[in-house]
Fold glutathione transferase.
Amino acid sequence: MSGKPRLTYLNGRGRMEPIRWLLAAAGVEFEEVFLQTKEQYDKLIKDGLLLFQQVPLVEIDGMKMVQTRAILSYIAGKYNLYGKDLKERALIDMYVEGISDLMQMILMFPFSPPEAKEKNLDSIKDRATNRYFPVFEKVLKQHGQDFLVGNKFSWADVQLIEAILAVEEKIPAVLSGFPQLQAFKTKISNIPTIKKFLQPGSPRKPPPDDHYVETVLKVFKK
């Protein structure tokens, strides 16, 4: 072992992508193992590595961690991206949970049947522009600071920039009515660790394509 965190998942975004984002934001290099067959996945279960028979799996600090939220909380706490006290942590948790609801829609979008894609895209646009992005636009405007919580870079900022870019891939003009979020996007994208993660050749995964969808269905088939 190199001492680097080891991430086991498919070679695509899915539920591992926010973990990749957070480690990258913290400046932490990691190794990846990509599942390509159902046999690889079944072996992880047989070997007792997946507590609830689910990936992501992250091996870090001698632990074999599963459950995305638990992994993210640990990384945020370990690398000082989780606020300075319980109140800040509660705010970060609220913002992260809200963004996760939006990201869940984006996560499931590639698996939509063709006839439902347009409707589901409309739903993503509606939720982003009417429910989720207005919250963060208001927060940033009210406190006049560069970051969401405590005027310090945190897990909430990482989760929000990931969501903004993911929605923009599908709806390029989605931020047109959100000047605060436009400024936030520019600011966060230029933080050195984030800027590095956004460069070609980084561990950031591309938008899911048909091959990724096929691999997911193959690896996790019942």
The chain has two domains: 6-79+198-220, 86-190. The first strand starts at residue 6 and ends at 9. The chain is about 55% helix and 5% strand. The chain has a mean pLDDT of 95.
